[in-house]
Structures are given as C-alpha cells and as structure tokens.
Write a structure and sequence with these properties.
This protein is 29% helix and 13% strand. By secondary structure, it is an alpha+beta fold. The chain has three domains: 4-209, no CATH class; 216-380, no CATH class; 482-546, Dockerin domain (Type 1 dockerin domain). The strands form three sheets. The chain has a seven-stranded mixed barrel with strand order 3-4-5-6-7-9-8. A four-stranded antiparallel sheet has the order 11-10-12-13. β4 (76-83) and β5 (91-97) form a beta hairpin. The protein starts with a strand and ends in a 7-residue tail after the last helix.
C-alpha cells in the first residue's frame, strides 16, 4: 500500500517553489507528493498527523504510569492513523505513552500533551505460517519508510529547542563530524480524536528499520545497544543467544563494560583494569570509529546536553558488527538519542563533568586532541554560527504559524509574541554559545557582520556599525535599535498601571501583527505590532514608570 502526504500549509516562498516542483511528480490517484525515508524527516516540511481511537483507550494511555514505574506493564492500544491528505488511506496502528512528564495547555480545552510511540506494523503479519497472518486488514508493514514514530512533547524545555538540538546531530553527520548519517528529526502537528495537541518533535526511532535505511543491518551479525546509565546498557537489536558482540567482549574495562553481575552482558572473567594510554589508543582505534564517537561527544557538548554519554553515561546508542566476518566487519558506531534537556546553558564547558568517559578519553595522551579538532571543524563548518542562523531562518516560516496556535508550546507568552521571542532567544543562544565554545577552544571569536568587533562586544552584532553609536544608552546600537529616543516607559505601560509587566504583554498579544499608525501595542512607532515591541517590553520589564 502506498501513501501520500500533502503539506497542510505553505509558509514561505521556498515552500511554494518546493510544492510546485512536487506537483510535477503527482500521479493521478494521489493526494500530494510521495514521501519516503529520509524525506519524512525533512526539517523544512511540517506534516499534520491524526490518531483516532476509543476515548476510553486514549485516557488509559494518558494515565499510563509505567513511564514512571518499570514494574508496571505498558499500556498499548489500537488506533487509526493518517496524515493530512491520507484520509481515505487510514492505517491500523498501536499507540503507547513514552517516558516524560505531561505538558498542560496554556489556553483552550483541557487535556495534557504526552509523548507517544506509534507502532506502524504492530497488527501486520507477513509470515503465512504465523497464526495471526495476515493481520488486521487495515494494517501495513511500513509508512513512508519507517515502522515506528517517536513523538516527543518537549517536556524538558520545549519542542523548538529539542528539535533544533536533534538536527544539529544531523548537520554534524558530514566528514567534519560523524562521517555517517547519525540521526534525523523534524516537527509534526498532531490531532487525537480531533483534539489539537500542538507541535511535536518527530525523532527518528533507532530500530532495525533505522539500520536498514542506512545499509547497516545484517542478521545475527549486527548488535545495537542503548545506554541506560551507570554502566548499564541493553541489547536492542541482535542475537539474544549471543548478546555480546566481539567489541563488547574486547572492551571489558571501565567505562565500556556492562558491570551488573548475573547478566549475559557481563564480561567473562569480570571487569579488567584499563590498559596504559598508548595501548588504549591502539585498541580503540581498531575497534571504534573514534571520530564518530568524538563527533557525538562534541555535538552533545555544543548543545549543552546534560544527559549525554560523556556527561551522564546515558541517552545514546552504539552499533557493533561481526568483526570476524570481513564482509560485514566495521568499527563500532556511536549514535545519539534523546536531547530534550539540551540548550539550557550557553556557557557550559565543552569538556563536561568528571565522568568515567571524560576522564579516560579526553586526556592529552588519549583523545582530547581529536576531540578538539572535531569540535573546531564543526564550529567552523556545519555548526558555524552563520550555518545555524541560516537553519533557523529556514525553519521559522515553516513552524511559526503552528507554534502560534499550539497551546502546549511552553514559550514565555502565547500566540505570535511567544513564538517570535522563542526564535529570538534561540538565535541569541547560538551567538552566545559560539562565543563560549570558541573562547574555550582558543580560536577566533565570532564577528557575524565583519565590522571587526566581536559579537560579544558588538551592540549590533548582525549589522555593521564600527562607530557603535548608541544615542539612548540602552545597549543597542542606533543602526539596529528600532526604539531610539521615542520609546519611553510610559509608552510601554500599555495598560496604564504604572509598571511594565505581564498585563502589558497581554495587551500586546491581543494586537500582535496589527498594522497602522494607531495600532495598540506599537510601542516603537514602526506602525506594526511586532517582535520589536516585545523587545521594548523586555528592556523595560518591571520598570515603574511613575
């Protein structure tokens, strides 16, 4: 069964051109354009997904406490699933709740937003000898190149930062970083029984399909493990009768082995002492793609991810191969996962905390030189300030309207003011993060507008102004200050209370994007209520005007 997805709305000229190009490929019996892997994870494509199931079953999923207590059974329930444009091709799937806290709505009808796992082929059976063959008549084996969807609700910070952090791993997949396709993610909107649950991060699920899409899977000769923290990992894909890969057997010293006794993953003979540094480097270079490992560590450090392998010994995978067979033998590959806690700080050290991984691998005599080189190559290349700001410029028109109507987005304000403030905050984080990382690496700091003044010192970092003129002394240079001279505290006190506070932001929200000389909320006199007015409120926040 073939599926087709039509983009719900076009948010930019680039999107219009893209849609026009796709029209040429539409077949007579199709709703929109065909998607497959990896296009289904294109960050510049916003899909709208739908679930329809028994309301009582949905409440059981929402109330599933197994996400907090692993001794409780997971609750999985059947549902019909489709994307906008596939209304006459609904498929029968399984849905369960994923770990993470629920996100309550800021406005609109009640109903908490939870993270979800959608199992596409749960009710599909291809083996004629299986008693369940062929499965449910509306079930399928694959949906646009994937068998599982992992929808993240952004509970740690928000879905904008989580999706952005995930995409940095994809941007780092080139020769400067991983050297292989590490991971993919984008954003989707979700409706459940007609109720709008807002924007989710659609994070690529690491399963057998993930490996097959990258030509990495060989039956009984491929092992995928997931770190669970504290020298604990689980076999996700592989031979249960032979759960330890050759590399797992060889790496029997800290921090690499599974150290819980009475487990088939525990090394024969117990934990061995670590070799000297020279022997260690020779051994790891033979067994592990060390540039890929350092790329994962560097990207997680750049996005300030506190739950990564090098900071918390968790939230990552590693993939091993049968090194005894030259036809499939490859070095271990490290793969990222779960970046929802990222982007909390723009000044955290790129060398992390004193975990076993950092203490052993980020020494001058082991892999710190390689780590520093990979980080330098990334911040000068795919993760450069210019590239990341360009990426934000490209995704903002795709996501802006969806975020504005999303009652669960966790931004500082509802509607467009909150969305614009979130994107401004993200751009600021990128600039500040580059300053911090480059300073720690000892390389030249960023100067985005090439006016010979570092962004950290420039009062208009994206507009050349060598004179640094700032007539009103507000810290924003005249050439980029849309609120010079006229913007007084009383202008920002929109409700006349005498203090610039949340009430004024509420007034501004009601008139956001209105135009005209007398538009209420147009504090800076631009004749449009916009992010410029939000910035004025921010500068004068909690100022008493009388």
């Amino acid at each position: 069964m073939r599926f087709w997805v039509m983009r719900k709305s076009v948010h930019s000229i680039g999107g219009v051109l893209f849609s026009l190009l796709m029209i040429s490929a539409i077949m007579s019996n199709c709703f929109g354009f065909e998607l497959d892997w990896p296009e289904v994870f294109d960050p510049e494509l916003l899909l709208t997904l739908n679930l329809e199931l028994d309301p009582a079953h949905w409440q059981e999923i929402v109330n599933d406490m197994s996400v907090y207590d692993e001794d409780l059974p997971e609750i999985k329930r059947p549902a019909y699933f489709w994307a906008d444009g596939e209304e006459d091709q609904k498929i029968y799937v399984s849905v369960r709740r994923k770990s993470g806290d629920p996100v309550p709505p800021a406005f609109g009808p009640a109903g908490d937003k939870i993270s979800l796992k959608i199992d596409i082929n749960k009710y599909h059976e291809e083996d004629p000898n299986d008693p369940d063959y062929p499965g449910h008549p509306d079930s399928v084996e694959m949906w646009h190149g994937v068998k599982k969807l992992s929808l993240e609700n952004g509970d740690d910070k928000n879905v904008l930062t989580e999706g952005f952090a995930a995409n940095l791993h994809q941007l780092a997949s080139g020769p400067e970083g991983y050297g292989y396709d590490s991971w993919r993610a984008n954003w989707v909107e979700l409706y459940v029984n007609g109720h709008y649950y807002g924007v989710y991060v659609n994070a690529e699920h690491l399963d057998k399909t993930f490996l097959k899409n990258r030509n990495l899977y060989t039956w009984h000769q491929t092992w995928l493990y997931q770190y669970r923290g504290n020298h604990n990992f689980t076999l996700e894909i592989g031979d249960d009768d032979n759960p330890r890969s050759p590399a797992v057997n060889a790496l029997n010293f800290y921090p690499f082995p599974f150290d819980k006794r009475n487990s088939p993953l525990y090394p024969d003979g117990g934990i061995a002492p670590a070799p000297d540094d020279a022997t260690l480097v020779t051994m790891l270079d033979e067994l592990i793609d060390m540039q890929g490992m350092m790329a994962m560590a560097a990207t997680n450090a750049f996005i300030s991810n506190p739950d990564s392998l090098f900071t918390h010994e968790r939230n990552s995978h590693f993939l091993d191969f049968d090194t005894n067979d030259p036809l499939v033998s490859r070095k271990r590959m490290y793969l990222p996962w779960d970046v929802d806690a990222s982007l909390q700080s723009s000044s955290s050290s790129i060398y992390g905390t004193d975990t076993d991984y950092r203490l052993l691998l980020l020494k001058d005599t082991t892999y710190k030189p390689l780590y520093d080189q990979v980080m330098t190559n990334l911040v000068n290349g795919p993760l450069s300030e210019a590239n990341l700001l360009d990426f934000i410029d490209r995704i903002e028109p795709v996501l802006r309207d969806a975020f504005a109507r999303d009652p669960y987005n966790k931004f500082v304000a509802t509607g467009y003011p909150g969305v614009d403030a979130a994107f401004l905050s993200l751009r600021t984080w990128v600039t500040d993060r580059h300053i911090s990382v480059r300073t720690e690496l000892g390389i030249t700091v960023s100067d985005s507008d090439a006016d010979q003044i570092a962004n950290s010192e420039d009062n208009c970092p994206f507009t050349q102004n060598t004179d640094q003129a700032d007539s009103d002394g507000d810290g924003i240079g005249d050439v980029c200050d849309r609120c010079n001279f006229e913007c007084a505290c009383l202008d920002a006190d929109l409700d006349g209370s005498g203090t610039v506070d949340l009430s004024d932001l509420a007034v501004l929200s009601q008139t956001y994007e209105q135009t005209g000389a007398a538009a209420p909320g147009d504090i800076d006199g631009s004749q449009r209520v916009s992010i410029g007015d939000v910035l004025v409120l921010a500068k004068l926040w909690l100022t008493q005007c009388q």
